[in-house]
Amino acid sequence: MLKIALAMEKLGPTCILCMTTDSIMFINSHDQDAGVHAWIKTDVNTLFSGYRIASSSNNEIYFSVLTDSLIRVARVAQQAAETRICLTVSHGQPLLEWRITLENRVGSTNVSSHELEIQLLTSERMQPLMEPPVLPSPQAYILLPSLQSMKHLADRAKSLSKFLTVSANMNGQLKLVIDTELAQVDAQFNRLENPRLDGHHPSEQNRTQFVSARIATDDLVHFLHCHHLDPQNVICAITDQMYIAFYVYVNLNIHIQADDHPIETQSTIMTCHLPVYHY
Amino acid sequence: MVDEEPVEAFSGTVKSVKLLIGLVKSIQFKQNATVHFHEEGMTLTVMIHHLMKAVVFVKRLVFEQYRRQADDIAPFDINLPTFLECLTMMGPTVGLMDTCRIAYQGPGYPLRLMREDREAHLSIQCNITPLESDPEGIELMVNDLDTVQRVIIKAQWLQDAFGDLDSECNRVNMVFSTSDPCLILYGDGANGVTSNTEYQAGSEAFVGFECHEPGTYSYQYTHINSCLKALEQASEVSLRINTEGVLCILIRLRGTDDAYLEYTILPCQSTGA
């Protein structure tokens, strides 16, 4: 939970959770049109070893919570032997109650209770926003190099320019370009992998053609906080001058059940759409 | 931009970008620096109001390759924070490579930094826009013959003495004497006289000490303070004061003799010596 919260930390002050019977979708708070849009979808078994949900709305519950508060409590829970989370209402205020059992070295336990204020959201409002919108077919999609190398460049780029252009082609090449009065920077990664997308066959002759999207450097830096998720793969998909999306694939391998059987975890997927700017 | 092999005024390969980064950070108290490719190496110079000059000397030994097409390549200015960010991108965080190519085609052309990391399959190129250089004021030279006092002091000691100075003080004073205590360093300003450091001739802080005649000198605290970053990387420091009271601080670095820094500071106008 902490990793997900940290990935969301820079993407908005609140985080919306859409909980269904088999999955949980975390969505950052964002304006309808502006800003970075991010969705993290994870299987309930990835986060919880026991999970029960019931509601009058098709057993789905939606609420928003302050991301910082979520991070704070999840940090404490990191050290816990056991954590129980439940949705309650106190004096009319809906809460996400965390009961955290900490065990010290001597073996004695200490149970602490943390309450996060949440705002319940209706199904009518959330249904249309729950899944990331499908973007028109990208002309290039490529597997990113190590997030560490991207982060290194993006962090430096922040001080150089408010905007940066990401370009990619179907020939395994990805470029980050900055163009300001004081400096022009061109960083190119070669020999990257272009994944195969179902139903999409890139034409041979256009392989080396670059497509680009101009984004805010800050947005890239904030997106790269997803390194907390320790992803296996990150795919970048670009529709020239129009859209840029990142797909982050994670296997959050955590639990060992009480009977010592490790749970097979489904992949957790983060989808992130960055706004594209024009000159 | 045509990319064959044009005749570049300067081209070279730096062996250690990390060294260069440390040096640039030491003179980062001004926006712009003047770049000069000399016969013996490259210099970066910053000036504060003609009252203080700081120079980073990078000898050609720091370069794997150092080629100048002409003997007099006109110096040019660059934006220092931009240069530092670009150098940091070139540095060995992404991959282990610590080298980087530097090229300069001539007046009006950008300063180019290039890095080709075969292992990481990453190539980076930075073009840094040249700015107009202020032709005066690079000539704040100190003539060796005029030296009246000279101290060679171990860097840690000077770092402690300067670090001890009250940040509120306006001036740093140095009192040289032919008898003990042979050197006194103290700050003065709004809070009166603060942090007095005294040295005896035989002090273990000194590697050398010469005082032809007694003298008292005052320098602006902000100027003295700007050497602190460089002191962090230093092994030894040589302080020289000439008959005009101009202080020249030469900083030798730990771990290498191929680069060094020199600060030249004019004395404060008031208070007779």
TrEMBL record, chain A:
Superkingdom field: Eukaryota
Main localisation: nucleus
UniProt xrefs under Gene3D superfamilies: 3.70.10.10
Keywords: Nucleus
Designated name of the protein: Checkpoint protein
Family stated for the protein in its record: Belongs to the HUS1 family.
Cellular location(s): Nucleus
TrEMBL record, chain B:
Chief location category: nucleus
InterPro entries the record matches: DNA_clamp_sf (IPR046938), Rad1_Rec1_Rad17 (IPR003021)
Entry GO terms, CC: checkpoint clamp complex
Record localization: Nucleus
Keywords: DNA damage, DNA repair, Nucleus
Name of one Pfam family that matches: Rad1
SUPFAM superfamilies: DNA clamp
Domain of life: Eukaryota
GO biological process: DNA damage checkpoint signaling; DNA repair
Protein family: Belongs to the rad1 family.
Name of the protein: Rad1-domain-containing protein
